[in-house]
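Need tokens for this chain, all 668 residues.
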Amino acid sequence: MLIDFGRANWLDKARQQPDKVRQVLDKVRTDGLLPTVAAVRNKLDQPLALGYCNVGEVIAVGAGVAGFAVGDRVASNGKHAEIVTVPSLLCARIPDGVGDEEAAFTVVGAIALQGIRLAQPTLGEAFVVMGLGLIGLLTVQLLLANGCRVLGIDPDPGKLSRARALGADTVDVAAGEDPLAAAAIFSRDRGVDGVLLTLSTESAEPMHQAAQMCRQRGRIVLVGVTGLELSRADFYEKELNFQVSCSYGPGRYDPEYEDKGHDYPFGFVRWTEQRNFEAVLDMMAGGRIAPASLVSHRFDLAQCEEAYELIASRAASLGVVLRYPKEGLDAPRASLVRTISLRPAAVDSAAPVIALVGAGNYAGQVLAPALRATGARLKSITSAGGVSSVHVGRKHDFEEAGTDLTSVLQDAEIDAVVIATRHGAHARQVCAALRAGKHVFVEKPLALTLAELADIEVAYAAAEPTGRVLTVGFNRRFAPQVQRMKALLSTMNEPVSCVVTVNAGHIPEQHWTQDVDQGGGRIVGEACHFIDLLRFLVGHPIEGVQAVTLGKGAGRGAGDTVSVTLRFVDGSIGAVHYFANGSKAFPKERIEVFCGGRILQIDNFRRMSGWGWPGFKRLNLWRQDKGTQACVHAFLDAVRHGTGLPIPWEQMHEVARVSIEVAEAARA
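Here are the structure tokens for all 668 residues:
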């Protein structure tokens, strides 16, 4: 599926994702054509690591992980790579009697097993498996091991032959055999007890046939993909049970389980993802399933492109095994390469030498191009996932890419570190970079807690006498329209009233930005931008804060919809309306300032209007400019010339503190 999607042209990609097309059209209306085209190209340009079934040997165990030790053989859902980092609940130790090649089928076996668990077969029942691909044939083996009679349906004679060898009856639809008639005979004219659909088709006919095959109150489980134009009569008359199976089992796509390692209680959730992995491996160890019989091809890692060409073609294939070089497995951990050279090192000693930490969307689409445009020497880009750092590094002419932040901080040649990782790592990485003697640019927020902010305060106090520059990526204060607004306001000698309205849009609670530890929530993680913007426009410290959140319950966007009122020491007032319950078709950001009988308004950083201002009516831009380029330039100018901080330390500290206090008040 991923290969087909990657090879599709823009039109075919659009047809496959109609919801994304609507988002693109909304973005064109609010942000303009050119920024939208750039965003779409960047999104489609991102590489996707393939694979999710592997076997390897543990070379390191994370803090707090129990049940695994260095040297254990494990099966996991890690990507296809020589070294992978995998959550502990997505690994299972391999029994001694199971070979590596067999164990590589653990994850796809768990997909088949979860479908069977939902079907709840009992000894002696009759089941149909529609689609005899890799997961279908594993489903056949598992059903037979459950003591069920199995009828397999597929148009491929080779797969039908494999199913018969396993002990199943078969129906060759390509030869014109009638699956409904065969199912009637197979069930002794009683109807089958259940049907598992392990196929991939846009047609709804398999679902219709499955309903017709079933007995009264039969069970249908969709493991693969099929059309779902269901006939009410099919299901109503027999009171059929239909369910869609979700991957490996309970825990899938739950960040609390998968990322944080919070297992479900054994007595309440008997079969989780990990326990399904273990069950499949136990079945292999007992000889009740034999996935090695499903291997159709074997390729060495150096031939991986041939392997994927085979899978993407119409040529017959089933289980395709990739074999990694033995010398890579035996290499001592200390000798593992953590940095890849992308191009020869530059010789321009005058330009600041930059290391970018993080290679996510913002780093790749916004910060890396901005850094490149400054003429700085882009030496290193580092990320936890090597694929992303290599991709962004090649695209923006970095000299090297890697995964080891420690080596970056120890590199005496690097002058400045630009941090664009997840918010929960910012404070720790800022402190480490300052202590290593680096200039630091950190994409907001500066810190997630007051304790983290205190740590940064200590680290910066020690670094300040050495002339180290610290900047937070509060780019909006550097936007050309905001700069013009600030210049106009400087001619007025009285308090101002400011309103910032942010149509932030809904983000699911499962997203990392909503996690208190990783993202800090959206007030600390994003609304801090607008607190800083008001602090800049008013030009005086904040002396009072109030926050009011939407509603009293857990409605859509309720926790992220907040009105923040700020009072400044000069008597000015400001409001940030950060709303997550609006339409994406509406512009995202609007800034309004009222002062001395005059008004200024910026609409989405494209249009600026003034009322009552002598000599000023409007400042419109061809494309949106939120000030990122100017912010990065200001940082590097400070690094080059020692001109002081682009944003005063007191203001960065104040905005971080107020943002954290607002978030705490909103939660309260």
